[in-house]
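EI: anyone free to look at a 315-residue chain?
SC: sure, send it
EI:
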Amino acid sequence: MSTYSALADRWPENAWLQNVCAKAETRLREHPHGDLARWRETLQELPRVDPRADLDQPAPRLGELCARPDQLKKSLMGLHPWRKGPLLLGGVEIDTEWRSDWKWERVAPHIELQGQRVLDIGSGNGYFGLRMLGAGAELVIGIDPTLLFVMQYLACSHFSGDIGNYVLPLGVEELPAGPAGLDTVFSMGVLYHRKDPAEHLLHIRSLLKDGGTLVLETLVLPKGREESLLTPENRYARMRNVWAIPGTGRLLDWVEGAGFTKPRVVDVTPTTTLEQRATDWMTFESLAEALDPSDPSRTVEGLPAPVRAIVIAGG
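SC: here you go
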């Protein structure tokens, strides 16, 4: 059986999805990443446990308890770094770089996912997809071009079984335009990485069915700079590919300009070193090293420290 045949079978009449699944199969089969063989070996080493999926909790619990948790932890560390979570796999708690549950708590009160088919752009290992299913979604199609995150998703699926959450090794630019018939599209932590934000938003609009919902989470400028736009010359918070950070007013203009209706900002929250930090499961430098040690309201480049906004809009 191919990796994404179960996804294709969940919506066989959707030609757009069949095309996307075929692309994902080819990418996974032909990917040249030098660590792919090692990661596949790690997946093969995972112990067999009864599948389980308790999703509506900060750390989704996947799989029954493993008889040898120390060995399982060693295997899962072979997929380091783990960035989105927390997760509980076979009884092993994975304390990820991001407290993604905090972001979910900011999003969840403003959306209704019961019975919906959802696209999660930049999904990482599929953590948010698990939370979406826990909130009642019928199907979550995640995409992320980082192959390691796909391997982490496959590890999660080993413990959960096929529950309707998938991560495909594709970037958003590889998705064909719609119609895709999707009820909700999430784009969280993606917009500022796109050279053309307007094109990204128009692409999302084409994938939503009429009356669908956009959930957009992105970096914004701090209060008082609502109509401003920052275009970093080099790096932002040590990230190379940050192209544009708008104020919330400018951001709403972008969303409305792409054809979405009634866009509204439902949350604005500064990112802190409690929410994004190095852990045993992500041992590289994190947000603390990206902030000015003498003034944490600034990045090491002297720019405003990260603030994130959530926008909800109709399709």
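EI: The domain at 5-278+293-314 is CATH 3.40.50.150 (Rossmann fold).
SC: 👍
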